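ok, trying the design again with the full structure, not the truncated one.
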């Protein structure tokens, strides 16, 4: 039960932080989405050790595990636009495949870099 409450509090904290940054970004008329800024700020706070990983880890892991559920509404929305799929479907497919490959490649490069960096730091 204690772990469940910890996850809920951490997820709520992440959501509130994202909403706050989103609100600020909207008020100062930034072109970058607030959710992206929140992600960057969380990363910076973690790197500067202002926020400890343990404070966010359980909630972030739960969000990652539930990530597939967040894509279901967009998938249902696509089905509603059948004529768009018939006219632009191939181009959309190419865009999806290409962007997925870019994300996978960048994820691989960043993961390899971070693992190498962490391994070097642990060996010192």
């Amino acid at each position: 039960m204690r772990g469940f409450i910890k996850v809920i509090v951490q997820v709520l904290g992440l959501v509130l932080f994202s909403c706050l940054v989103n609100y600020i970004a909207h008020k100062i008329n930034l072109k970058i989405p607030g959710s992206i800024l929140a992600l960057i700020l969380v990363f910076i706070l973690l790197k500067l050790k202002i926020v400890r990983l343990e404070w966010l880890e359980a909630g972030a892991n739960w969000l990652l595990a539930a990530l597939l559920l967040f894509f279901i509404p967009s998938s249902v929305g696509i089905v509603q636009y059948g004529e768009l799929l018939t006219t632009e479907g191939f181009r959309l497919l190419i865009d999806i495949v290409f962007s997925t490959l870019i994300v996978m490649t960048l994820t691989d490069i960043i993961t390899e870099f971070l693992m190498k960096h962490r391994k070097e730091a642990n060996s010192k």
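Keeping the full-length input from now on. The CA atoms of residues 24 and 107 lie 29 Å apart.
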